[in-house]
Amino acid sequence: MAKKIDADHQRFRRIVKGRIKRELKKYMSTGELIGRQGKKMVTIPLPYIEIPRFKFGPREQPGVGQGDGEPGDPLGGDEEAEGQAEAGNLPGEHALEVDVTLEELAQILGEELELPDIQPKGKAVIKNLKDRYTGIRTTGPESLRHFKRTYKHALKRMIVSGAYDPRDPMVVPVKEDKHYRSWKITEEPENNAVVIYMMDVSGSMGEEQKEIVRIESFWIDTWLQYQYKDIQTRFIIHDATAREVDRETFFRTRESGGTIISSAYKLCLQLIEKDYPPDEWNIYPFHFSDGDNWSGDDTNLCIDLIKDKFFPIVNVFCYGQVESQYGSGQFIKDLDGKLTGEEKLITSRIENREAIYRSIKDFLGKGK
Length: 368
Hints:
- By secondary structure, the chain is α/β, with parallel strands linked by helices.
- Helix content is 36%, strand content 21%.
- It has 3 domains: 1-48 and 95-114, no CATH class; 127-187, no CATH class; 191-364, von Willebrand factor, type A domain (Rossmann fold, 3-Layer(aba) Sandwich).
- The protein has helices at residues 2-27, 32-35, 102-113, 147-161, 207-227, 247-252, 262-275, 296-310, 330-338, 356-364; strands spanning 41-46, 96-101, 126-137, 180-190, 192-200, 230-238, 242-245, 282-289, 317-322, 345-350.
């Protein structure tokens, strides 16, 4: 019975996974999942899932397999036609809510968008020391005694010596019978990553633009957490100046000043220099803006910082331009024009919520 329940549960999970995969594009354009996110699980609302099953009708009614029947008789019996049922007071079918782990959600995301696994850059690997049990030895602490090996060795000794009595099968190990687990210290690679989100919060970045960034960052985090054992997230907001904030402030703040993008890039570099040595961390800066900058001189400074400071130390530098009716959209043109062919630069235009699906693939599709 337990095996049958396990098989049914696995079948149900496959059905749920297929339904989520079909609806993924819709989920990625709404913020509904973010509000349902726990530490390791996400609650996903699905349309009612009808599992195929046999349904038996009343014995007194004729049907398939009961008598000869007549040509043209419907196989479905005398059920009412669709839309002809009378009004009632019973509840209808509701949406089904299922809990999905963030790992399962990342797997679905990777399959649907055909995302390659990330290849961590060469030196960004921390060696973590771990004890691993690898063998058996005849000396050691009693807490590591291998009871099965000790018993078998004692039983063999007693049989060979003639001390074993099948009528009184008592086995008493002596010192020479005792065996203990042995271990050695091994180095396990532990890939660490930091994601540093930067966002323009000047007046032209409205609530809709910030919601797009919030949704997109959720999916970016989901994928990167699946790829790395340990991941940290930092947040920087900027208008004419930049400052580090927590996640809640990042998506809630709105200013009305000008925009100097280089202020965010300089602060980002300071965080990296202080807390994230490039030879130990995989570093992912993401910058979101509507494309306005205070001056062409500052844009040139940003390009120099990306090329000379960011490229040598980051896995990729990602810039997402969220369309706004107040933004000029010039910054992405300058980046693409002056950094053409740079593999570590990934830019993406995010015109609306529906474009989040494509933008995620732009950012994560290279497997860096």
